[in-house]
Design brief:
There is one protein chain. By secondary structure, this protein is α/β, with parallel strands linked by helices. It has helices at 18-29, 47-50, 82-95, 182-191, 218-226, 228-249, 254-268, 274-279, 297-301, 359-362, 396-417, 425-439, 443-446, 467-476, and strands at residues 11-14, 35-38, 102-103, 108-113, 118-122, 127-130, 132-135, 157-160, 174-178, 197-201, 208-209, 292-293, 306-309, 313-317, 320-323, 328-330, 333-336, 350-352, 381-383, 419-423, 483-487. The protein has a 5-stranded parallel β-sheet, covered by helices on one side. α1 packs parallel to α11, α6 packs across α7 (254-268) and α11 packs parallel to α14. Bound molecules: 3-acetylpyridine adenine dinucleotide. 3-acetylpyridine adenine dinucleotide (N01) binds at residues 58-60, 140, 146, 148, 178-184, 203-204, 290, 313, 337-340, 450, 452.
């Protein structure tokens, strides 16, 4: 057994994205300043650092996609470009006093519980020790590469959308994009008509909601700056819009759902050629896959030198993609827009918890958490955006605020009482089994599609109840009666 927790615990946070910065800020608010945020990348910003592809923007309204306590009057658009969001979070890290705690280019590889503290190893060989570990890695950071024969034999340039190589010129290229999720749709809108040629390789069409973009003029931004009440109003309005969209997707507001479906169908009518329109029309329910929002995708796909390829990909060869009809599509650049491994969470970090039990063992069937935040056998370990966290199309920022609130109550108990906390296996199993049962009845499971929401068994690994349920459960928790609470050994010199 190692040393016991100090009265003011030492905390290690993994990841300096939106939720890691938020966690640091909340720790400072509790008077806990002995913490380090380890960040594998070369700057803060999380997903908004990793993703820099052309056309990148957030499909949650800007005035809602920010900390509720730090509204920004500076957004230039209703749906912010990615770089503005990265800059916002970097600025917040400084303004909230968190930046001095961030250690960049520092990837944690292993964490081991010694009975009282976590022993942490980093890729560069350095080590650290913490009473509490908080994972703020997000769940869309491990890229998913497609298993397409011959991909490595392509002699042009290829990269995943989250690894965009800005040294490669685009205007002179014949570009093929594989995948038709939110990412590919934004890239097509940005590049169509501006490059030598663009081919979108679609395996499954998407429903696309027509949501107009809006610019905020310098005068509007000045007005936002001078009026905090207006800023609050904008936040509340954007929040309501997002929540209503999520409710409609879940079928909780049938009238709005019908309106949303009609919007998607009307949007499709902007495709003039009926044959192209038919190929772009999904056969599953609206909202089954995460809804794609775009005001201009259908215009983009009809531009000159832009085409939709629906013949399946057979293999890739040195000069391009060969489709199942035997046709070679000659290309200079292949953009891989095939998304992320959403169930990786903190992995590939290896974790060994109480009594030598590993995270891989706890998650052998599927990633499990209690109330999306804590994991059995992993004492004093907390996750933001843990298993079953995503709540439809809702902003992850607000969800993170609630989860950090929950975590801070745990941190206080650990600090006040010098204990190790982890949820019991039984309560976690019951929690997960209830969510999975509920998830089977959702549009994500029954809507006739596959998506990154689904786990290996085809059950959506996202929160199946309405967002109010998530809010009340998270803010109402934790109930420590459901936890294994063990006293830590007193320090030798106590
Ligand atoms: O990835 P995806 P994404 N051969 O998993 C296709 C967030 N996000 O990066 O549908 C051919 O949605 C796959 O086809 P199919 C948001 O949460 C947010 O676009 O499985 N195709 C699909 O078309 C989003 O949902 C913003 O048949 C293959 C595509 O690749 C999440 O990130 C912006 C294939 C993957 O789509 C992920 O979006 C962008 C293969 N072998 C992203 N394998 C915001 O604005 C996969 N595909 C907040």
């Amino acid at each position: 057994m190692g040393q016991a927790a100090a009265a003011k615990p030492r905390v290690v946070i993994i990841g300096a994205g939106m939720s890691g910065i938020l966690t640091g800020y909340r720790l400072l608010g509790m008077g806990i300043d002995d913490f380090t945020i380890y960040e594998k990348g070369n700057c803060a910003g999380g997903t908004w650092r990793e993703n820099t592809y052309p056309g990148l923007h957030c499909d949650v309204p800007s005035h809602f996609y920010c900390y509720s306590f730090a509204p920004s009057p500076d957004w230039t658009k209703k749906f912010s470009p990615g770089h503005e969001i990265r800059e916002y979070f970097e600025r917040q890290a400084h303004e909230l006093g968190v930046a001095p705690h961030i250690r960049l280019n520092s990837e944690i590889t292993d964490a081991k519980w010694d009975g009282a503290r976590w022993n942490i190893a980093l890729k560069d060989g350095t080590k650290d020790v913490a009473d509490i570990v908080i994972s703020a890695t997000g769940f869309l950071h491990q890229i998913a590469m497609p298993d397409i024969a011959g991909l490595d034999s392509f002699k042009g340039v290829k990269f995943h959308t989250a690894r965009w190589d800005h040294s490669v010129s685009l205007e002179d290229k014949r570009i093929g994009i594989i995948g038709t999720g939110s990412t590919a749709v934004q890239i097509v809108s940005a590049l169509a008509g501006k490059v030598k040629s663009l081919e979108l390789y679609q395996r499954t069409p998407q429903w696309v909601l027509n949501v107009p973009q809006e610019e905020f003029s310098p005068e509007q931004r000045a007005a936002f700056r001078q009026d905090p009440a207006l800023m609050r109003e904008l936040y509340d309005e954007a929040s309501e819009l997002t929540v209503n969209t999520a409710r409609a997707i879940m079928g909780l507001d049938p009238a709005l759902r019908a309106e949303m479906e009609q919007n998607c169908r009307d949007n499709l009518l902007r495709v003039k050629d009926p044959e192209l329109r038919a190929r772009l029309t999904p056969s599953y329910e609206v909202g089954c896959k995460r809804l794609v929002m775009s005001p201009d995708f259908y215009e983009a796909i009809q531009r000159e030198n832009t085409s939709l390829v629906t013949e399946g990909i057979d293999y890739v060869e040195a000069n391009g993609i060969v489709t199942k009809d035997g046709k070679l599509h000659e290309l200079d650049l292949i953009v891989i827009a095939t998304g992320f491994n959403a169930t990786a969470y903190i992995r590939p970090v290896t974790m060994t918890g109480q009594d030598g039990v590993t995270l891989d063992e706890v998650w052998a069937e599927q990633p499990k958490s209690y109330q999306c935040v804590t994991v059995p056998h992993m004492p004093n370990f907390f996750m933001i955006g843990g298993p079953y966290s995503p709540v439809g199309n809702i902003s992850l920022v607000l969800m993170a605020e609630w989860q950090v609130d929950y975590i801070m109550k745990c941190v206080k108990r650990v600090a006040d009482e010098q204990v190790a906390l982890s949820p019991t296996q039984a309560v976690t199993d019951a929690f997960i089994s209830d969510l999975r049962e509920e998830a089977r009845g959702t549009t994500w499971a029954r809507g006739g599609c596959t998506s990154w929401y689904l786990d290996a068994e085809g059950i959506p690994a996202i929160y199946p109840y309405p967002f109010e349920h998530f809010r009340d459960t998270t803010l109402g928790g934790p109930d420590f009666a459901n936890f294994d609470v063990r006293p830590l050994r007193q320090p030798v010199d106590a």
